[in-house]
Amino acid sequence: MPVPSELQAFWCAAQAANPAIDAARFYEAFAFGDSERMADELAQLVLAGTKRATASLAWTYEVEHKPRPQAGDLSIVTLASGRPVCIIETTAVDVVPFDEVTEDFAATEGEDDGTLASWRRGHAAFFARDCARIGREPHPRMEVLCERFRVVYQPDGAGVHDPGRGPA
To answer: Which single residue of 11, 23, 30, 97 has CA 20 to 30 Å from 77?
Structure first.
């Protein structure tokens, strides 16, 4: 998949700063979550170094006919508005049943209080919304992609304040 044209300038700036950023490794541009507020809050956690992982349903990739992320993939993280804030590199992807996600992974994902209990609460609700969207029923054994990543490019002054939307 090519880098979207509206993000080419951001990608080129990243390549100038980090020659390891190669367009052949581009996977996608995306905002985390399923709401504007969630997208901006999670992007801030990534920029702060708190969020170093993300989880998604295996079913979503099947329904959307999209390849699963792999180690080495590069993705542009955006705010809900579409403004890019950083580039992440996928470092590992493990597929596990929802009820086998570990405390370590929950902490690495960096959301809420970082505990497995809060991860399960938040992700059960998020995955239920995703299941409703794709016509599936959530259950404790549904496969979850546990993706770990690292930030490989973050421009100076990157943050979630989007001048077009006011304070986040």
So the answer is: 97
In a domain, 167, yes or no: no
Residue 97 belongs to what domain range?
A: 5-153
Domain assignment of residue 36, yes or no = yes
d(CA 165, CA 67): 33
Let me know if residue 161 belongs to a domain: no
pTM: 0.91
Q: Model confidence over 110-142: pLDDT tens digits?
A: 999 999 999 999 999 999 999 999 999 999 999
Q: Rounded CA gap, 64 and 57, in Å?
A: 11
β-pair type (74-78, 26-30)? parallel
DSSP state letter for 164: T
User: What tens digit of pLDDT does each residue of 35-51 get?
Assistant: 999 999 999 999 999 99
- Cα–Cα nearest to 52, from 77, 18, 83, 29: 77
DSSP 34-73: SSHHHHHHHHHHHHTT---EEEEEHHHHHHTT-PPP-TT-
- Is the distance from CB of 120 to CB of 101 less than 8 angstroms? yes
Q: How many domains does the chain have?
A: 1
